[in-house]
Amino acid sequence: ISSLPKEKSQLSLYDGYWIPTWSMPGVLAFQKYFQARETDILLVTPPKAGTTWFKAILFALVNRMRYLDLQEHPLLTNISHALVPLLDVDIYNKKKVPDLNSFASPRLFATHLPFDLLPTSVKGSSCKIVYVCRNPKDNFVSLWHFMNRVYSTTNSLEEDFDKFCRGVSLYGPYWDHVLSYWKPIIEKQAQKILFLKYEEMKEQPTTHLKRIAEFLECPFSPEEDAKGTINDILQLCSFDNLSNLDVNKSGKWRFPEHNNTLFRQGIDHASFFRKGNSGDWVNYFTPQMTERLDHIIEEKFHGTGLKF
Ligand code: A3P
């Protein structure tokens, strides 16, 4: 692991990716100790690509038979991060290696790690990976807001944009992260990855929720179709609904024993909900920024069939 002291963001370059330095013990423990089950479901996202949203969607989808009464649904009183933990950040970042054997199957977990850094036990198992990425421009804008609000960084938009373009961002380079999950699909090595974009879920939520359900081998039955279950899940997990719940407006995401001060003090749940739209980047980018990032996107994704 080599750290660049000049980069104030406290990121460490680990196997080509910029990982938060404080989370490295958790990453290494996750890689070393996690034993995947074939029934496991892993949500993977670059930060700010819709983790909070897709955690809610996957939780509601997979547990829909358990929580038939929507008025009593756990998502009404818990932020989705409390229901679907990040393995390296929330679970393995403790002094004692946790025992995950007692978790009932299917276990639902999340991580921000790129494919290359997943534990061998995950890569070698047929567990399912739902990967969600986002238009890099919106992802950058969302990340910049989050870093300033939560990490109290005071970097200007221009400063952070320059770093993002150079690949220096949480779990970046962004394009390498995306391609690390896209390449196994196009090389037909991975049947177990479902690749989604934030924008497509926004545009055609029903289609993509059905796609996710089929991929996870829990498709909606005709009875559920008739009952409107798909719509219920989408409504429950919508930005308007989640961002207006008391738990998400006022709570804090806190781990009293976490090795990171920020997590000990707590992150406002509200900071995970900002606008929840596609295309906000137009309000922030100058023509020069657009040109620079378009050029990078064109170069990095050229010939891969992936477009943003
Ligand atoms: P914006 O900052 O563009 O509004 P993450 O969960 O990975 O941290 O990503 C946060 C981004 O997802 C934020 O984007 C946030 O507003 C948006 N988001 C949170 N909940 C959402 C939901 N239910 N539907 C759509 N977007 C949501």
From TrEMBL:
Domain Sulfotransferase: 39-305
Pfam family, one: Sulfotransfer_1
Origin: domain of life: Eukaryota
Signal peptide: none
EC number, UniProt record: 2.8.2.-
Keywords: Transferase
Enzyme class: transferase
Keyword Magnesium included in the entry's annotation: no
Single GO MF descriptor: sulfotransferase activity
InterPro entries documented for this protein: P-loop_NTPase, Sulfotransferase_dom
Family statement drawn from the similarity comment of this UniProt entry: Belongs to the sulfotransferase 1 family.
Protein name according to UniProt: Sulfotransferase
